From TrEMBL:
GO terms for molecular function: DNA binding. Residues 1-52 form the Sleeping Beauty transposase HTH domain. It comes from Hemibagrus guttatus. One of its GO terms (biological process) is DNA integration. This is Transposase. Residues 70-140 form the Transposase Tc1-like domain. It comes from the Eukaryota. InterPro entries: Homeodomain-like_sf, HTH_SB, RNaseH_sf, Transposase_5, Transposase_Tc1-like, WH-like_DNA-bd_sf. Pfam families: HTH_SB, HTH_Tnp_Tc3_2. Gene3D superfamilies: Ribonuclease H-like superfamily/Ribonuclease H, Winged helix-like DNA-binding domain superfamily/Winged helix DNA-binding domain.
Amino acid sequence: MAKNKELFKDVRDKIVALHKAGMGYKTIARQLGEKVTTVGAIIRKCKKHKITVSLPRSGAPCKISPLGVSMIIRMVRNQPRTTREYLVNDLKAAGTIVTKKTIGNTLRHEGLKSCSTRKVPLLKKAHVQARLKFANEHLNDSEENWVKELWSDETNIELFGINSTCHVWRRRNAAYDPKNTIPTIKHGVTLRMIPPQTDQSFYPIWFYTIQMHEMSPDDDLMFL
């Protein structure tokens, strides 16, 4: 567990002086109002390193200041698709030179992870109601009616970037936040073959109907 406070140098020197005078850990702790473990740690450090001041920390110091960390966290929170390269250049303009790996480690330390965007249909309320209406109208259709549908196909239109290479910085359980998703737009085509309404069984002609879900200018390129 990390220490919550450090004693001043004069107090440490006094502990060491009292110990050299022949006093024990408990007596020194009782006289100075400190813990026995604290007194013991200071005396053992003095015996090992011959000093009472705090030793320099191990490892390299943080390259990004707390203010810089807050800045990149705020930027990523507002724009989850911000790239590491953009953050590197932004910090470089502010006078801090770091690598993309350092940026990634900093964001992961703050609980953010680089994940692929979840694909969700870009629907308006009108589209949802139209689909629900279609489903209710054909809810009781017979199996023979559905057999008439021979072939259907969809074309995926990527208007918001390449879906396969788009990543966002997000926290856990935030996959479907609107900022962390990418809308998908699809063009649907269905081919159905319907027999003519006639009593002549030898009638050889079949009618083909193509049902296309087309987008109109009023739909703002939404998924129909």
